[in-house]
Amino acid sequence: MATLDEKYPNAYFDYLLSMLSKSKDIWIETDFRNLLDEFRDMEGEQLFMNLQNELKQIIANQDLETYALRAQEYHRKKINLTEIQVLSNMILE
After folding, report:
1. Residue 74 belongs to what domain range?
2. How large is the greatest C-alpha to C-alpha distance in the chain, in angstroms?
3. Which of 9, 13, 32, 69 has the most Cβ atoms closer than 10 angstroms to its Cβ?
């Protein structure tokens, strides 16, 4: 079975989650919106579109829950699947 790194070698979503880990421990929708604005400002619209495409693959492959677990371990922050889903929906808007 392929790892997340193998499936998504550009790691756009993982990069976004690492940006999230630099903020607070509890997130609300406004925090997610600010994060996405910051991502767009720093990385540009093309990379944001790449993030959207990667996220569509992640959802199609049912890897969102795995990313939630990875975020908890890798970033040592308490983020749950529901929060990941809210963030994902905002990315795909």
Report:
1. 4-92
2. 36
3. 13
- Pull the structure tokens for residue 79: 């983020």
Q: Is the distance from CB of 8 to CB of 57 less than 8 angstroms? A: yes
DSSP state of 78: -
In the chain, how many domains are there? 1
How far, in Å, CA of 48 to CA of 62, rounded?
21
pTM of this prediction exceeds 0.70: yes
Instruction: Label residue 67 exposed, middle or buried (CB < 10 Å: 0-12, 13-18, 19+).
Output: buried
- At 25-74, the pLDDT tens digits run 667 788 889 889 999 999 999 999 999 999 999 999 999 999 988 887 76
